[in-house]
Each structure stands twice: as C-alpha cells, then as structure tokens.
Amino acid sequence: VEDQRARWERKRSRTAKELLETEHKYLEQLDLVVTYFVTILKAKGTLKPAVLETVFGPLESIYSASHVLSFHLERGNLGPGLESFCQNLDLYGHYAENLEQANKTLKEQLRKNKSFRRFKKLQESRPQFQGRELEDLLPLPLQRLHQYKHFFRDLLENTSPDSAEHLKLASMIPPV
C-alpha cells in the first residue's frame, strides 16, 4: 500500500509539474494576443468595440483565469487553483461558441479594414510571435481546455481516493 501511494505521489507530482510548465507556455502565447492585439486595439480604436468583442471575446478574462491557476500551481495549491479555474469554465464555453463567428469577423475586417490589416501584419512581424499569426493563436484556449481534461484525469487517477482533493478533481472533470 505504501509503495502504491509513493508511485501515485510521484506520478501526481510529475503531472502537476507538467501542468505548470505547459500553463506558463500557454500564458506566454495568450499574452501575445492580449498585449499586442486586444490592449493596443482598444487604445487605438482601430476596431469598433463590438467588432473587437466579436473577434476576441472573453480572451482577457481567460488569460486572467489562467494566471490565477498558474499562481496556485506555483505554490503547490492544486485544489484551490483548480477550484478557481472551474469557476471560469463558462468563459471557455462562451469562447468556443463564438470562435467560428470570430474567425469570420476577423477575415471580414482583414478584407475591408486597411489600417487593421497593416496593424495585424506589423504585430505579427514582432520577434515574440516567432512567425505565428493571430489566426494560429485564437484557437489556443480551446486546445488548452482539451489538455486540461487530460491533466485533470491524470491527477485524479494518481490522487488518493480518500483525500478531499480526489473529490474536487472528480467533480471537475465532467464540466471540463
């Protein structure tokens, strides 16, 4: 029994570490969109607020939720981190429902709005983007949500069934 618990704990620690490492990479990529597109576009007014909302939706809120999760993971507070994250799952649902329309609106703006087209090209030419385009970055939250499902399942499988965290993890997997 002790050997099994030790194996669970090692696997659980590896999974939590991998979750944190990939969360940092995910945050770096989201930061590109939030910093170089959403924030600047809001300030410049290149896109109307309604268009901006359609293209980027709740991306800033998703970014904030991931920051909170990362903060908790860095401190080893998996339970509270996952709990706060799950309170924000509806943001991902809203984002997913809107992604098709966001892509249509983005294409339309690129066709009709010359200043936005130039702005997008300029931002994507920054070295931080490493050749990635906005269209490559917009689906990231949905891809990450799929990854969360696997991480949470792995954490659940390697958490002692009689712990409070096991119950939390078990209740989170269906919504994700």
From TrEMBL:
Gene3D superfamilies: Dbl homology (DH) domain. It holds the Pfam family RhoGEF. InterPro entries: ARHGEF39 (IPR042987), DBL_dom_sf (IPR035899), DH_dom (IPR000219). One of its GO terms (molecular function) is guanyl-nucleotide exchange factor activity. Residues 11-176 form the DH domain. GO terms for cellular component: plasma membrane. PANTHER family: RHO GUANINE NUCLEOTIDE EXCHANGE FACTOR 39. This is ARG39 factor. It comes from Tyrannus savana (Fork-tailed flycatcher). The lineage of its organism: Eukaryota, Metazoa, Chordata, Craniata, Vertebrata.
